[in-house]
Amino acid sequence: MPASAKKGDIVQIRVIVQHDMESGFRHTETGQRVPRDIIRDFLCTYNGVEVFRVELHPGMGANPMIIFTTVATENGTLEFNWSGDNGYASKTTRQLVVT
Amino acid sequence: MTINRRTFVLSAGAASGLTSLNALATVAEATQAADKILGNKKASVGRVTLVIPPLVENGNLVTMRVSVESPMTKDDHVQAIHIVAEGNPLPNVVSFYLSSRSGRADITTRIRLGDSQRVVAIAHMSDGSFWQGDASTLVTIAACAEV
Amino acid sequence: MTVAAKVFVCWVVCSVLVLGALVKADPVGEDRQSSYELMSTDTKAMQDDPLLNPANFAVLDGQALWHEATGKKNVSCASCHGDAALSMKGVAASFPKLSTAGMSLLNLGGRINQCRTEHQGAVPLAPESKPLLSLSAFVATQSKGMPITVDRSASNAARLDAGERLFNLRLGQLNLSCAQCHAERPGQKLAGNLIPQAHPTAYPIYRLEWQSVGSLERRLRNCLTGVRAEPYAFGSKELLELELFLAWRARGMPLESPGVRP
After folding, report:
1. What is the pLDDT of residue A29?
2. Among the four B46, B135, C114, C213, which has the fewest Cβ within 10 Å?
3. What is the rounded average pLDDT for all residues in chain B?
């Protein structure tokens, strides 16, 4: 995402996270099922307010990548939260300067 | 105990019958999943564009883009977009929750497609109505796989 | 010569000529093409954009490992080699090559492990392990865009010839050689997929089929499984000779590492 934008501009945000997204449908060579282990939720907040949310299911590809947009309303912090199976949690933040 | 040939062939036939029933069931399951999203409403066809490459080299990572015609204002915006796959073991693939702060309803992501199939995108509008679009694709598998 | 004998000789000569026409020669020079060109627009875009390229995580992990002190001598790659962007430029494009002592043929992974044992006093990394692939991806990408510089020399000639023999050797239950698909029939289809010329210009790759990053050795073993042959072991003489021949065959072509392939 850009570091700054004019008020009212639509900002494109691209996020990607490293995660195998084990669908639960794969089998090992000996025929055992590899247990499901995926990211379930993505949440983007803008100064603490939810602006975009995603519910992920096993049909999402590995290393989930999402491109979405949000309106630049004010200076602030965008927070990106991923959470999933087996207590997986990952957070990143970015500053957006809005003129 | 000897299993005579006829019994073996019959049981093999029954087993393959079950497999094919399973494949058909996913379209029905997908319809069920869509119905669950729609409640007791119907989705109008239009306003939603779902773009998936018509021929996919590998179903493990397929780039998909969904966009909905909408002013995205407080009074008129897309509140959610649900992606349902007719040929995957689980029909629900992903759900996006947008708001009037989204600016545009235009999202790109990467999904898994287990087989050649039709994928449906259902958009839930702020006024409670539903619109949908779909895309069909052919999924090929790699030659010279690992095992 | 009798009429029958003449007819027979004529038939044999004609068949050979016809068969010769059907069988193409291995593409050389300008006719060579990276398998990148055979991919769909989306997959090409996935390789080109570091944000979209799943192998980029391996590059980032490799960068972290580059700076991590390890082994009995507790030194990092960076302590000798400094900034990889400078010191590793062109390095990956020169592999496989003979070790400095001239005794063993090494690919990039083998050279990384030699550095680890000799200069860091560390245990070699297992083949196809995440740390080895990450370091390989990090080092390889420093040569991105540079031509492969593997050439025939007096010292590698024997091994290069061995690699060429392997490339032309019919193997497995399907009794196919690498050459039959990749030298004679590239651009034709095998089970719905386009056959590439098989130039190793993008390794290590994120193969969508594997859903992970892997080396050329892993891919070659897949090919062998594909013709239903017993795959050569990781680090085997055969795989290294084949890698040497493939790199020589691709000399001059630019490196794309890390690549994405279906």
Report:
1. 79
2. B46
3. 84
